[in-house]
């Protein structure tokens, strides 16, 4: 078991955002988390990642932060670093060796290989989102967490991204957790969790 949440609750500003959530994530798990706006999806992902401590309950994991890859809803790219430099920095930050072959594979799959020398500030919205996904995968994490990874993408790139996330998870024996409003992703996942008003319904 990579990670478990037991009776987890989170309060922000004195208001409950998550309530009594139980969740276990095993190696190679693939989980889709859905729910309406304000249901606590991003908060749950932040707790899973270790960015946010639960107000109640426990979070137990064998993973370090460096073994997690996170695709943020707000991309947090450094605008005046080139595409390849963004990937090298991700490896440096996680103390992992930069694998140029693996990086090229990711950029090719995401149709960014011709943008290797481009600054992030000069990328389109869709290109920037795909770069953020490559950055989350380049250090071969054991747990991949993605917050609305296809929100800015057309159908073709949406399919390419979700297949790459699943392909990468399979190739590295990683677990994958995606939170989204995007109904296009439902057919790609056999396991799902629905949040409503901070509670897990399924």
Would you give an account of this structure?
- By secondary structure, this protein is of the alpha/beta class.
- It has a single domain, classed as P-loop containing nucleotide triphosphate hydrolases (Rossmann fold).
- Helices cover 30% and strands 26% of the residues.
- The chain contains 5 helices and 9 strands; from the N terminus they run βββαββαααβαβββ.
- It has helices at residues 41-49, 83-93, 100-109, 125-137, 155-172; strands spanning 3-12, 15-25, 30-34, 56-61, 68-71, 143-147, 175-179, 192-196, 199-200.
- The strands form 2 sheets. The chain has a 6-stranded mixed beta sheet, sandwiched between helices. It has a 3-stranded antiparallel beta sheet with strand order 2-1-4, covered by helices on one side.
- A hairpin with a 2-residue loop joins strand 1 (3-12) and strand 2.
- Helix 2 (83-93) runs parallel beside helix 4.
- The longest helix is centred in the last third of the chain and has 18 residues, at 155-172.
- It is globular.
Short descriptors:
alpha/beta, Rossmann fold, three-stranded antiparallel β-sheet, globular
Layout of strands and helices, then pairs:
Layout (H helix, E strand, L loop, with lengths): L2 E10 L2 E11 L4 E5 L6 H9 L6 E6 L6 E4 L11 H11 L6 H10 L15 H13 L5 E5 L7 H18 L2 E5 L12 E5 L2 E2 L2
Parallel strand pairs: 3-7, 3-8, 5-6, 6-7
Antiparallel strand pairs: 1-2, 1-4, 8-9
Helix pairs in contact: 2-4
């Amino acid at each position: 078991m990579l990670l478990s949440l037991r009776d987890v609750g989170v309060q922000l500003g004195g208001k409950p955002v998550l309530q009594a959530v139980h969740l276990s994530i095993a190696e190679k798990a693939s989980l889709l988390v859905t729910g309406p706006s304000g249901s606590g999806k991003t908060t749950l992902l932040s707790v899973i990642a270790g960015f946010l401590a639960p107000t109640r309950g426990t979070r137990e994991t064998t993973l370090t932060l460096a073994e997690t890859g996170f695709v943020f809803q707000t991309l947090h790219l450094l605008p005046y670093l080139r595409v390849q430099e963004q990937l090298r920095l991700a490896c440096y930050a996680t103390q992992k060796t930069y694998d140029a072959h693996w990086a090229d594979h990711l950029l090719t799959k995401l149709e960014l290989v011709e943008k290797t020398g481009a600054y992030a500030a000069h990328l389109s919205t869709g290109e920037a989102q795909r770069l953020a996904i490559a950055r989350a995968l380049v250090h071969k994490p054991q747990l991949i967490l993605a917050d609305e990874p296809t929100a800015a993408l057309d159908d073709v790139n949406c399919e390419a991204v979700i297949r790459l996330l699943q392909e990468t998870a399979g190739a590295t024996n990683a677990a994958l957790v995606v939170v989204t409003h995007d109904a296009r992703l439902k057919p790609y996942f056999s396991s799902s969790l629905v949040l409503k008003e901070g509670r897990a319904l399924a």
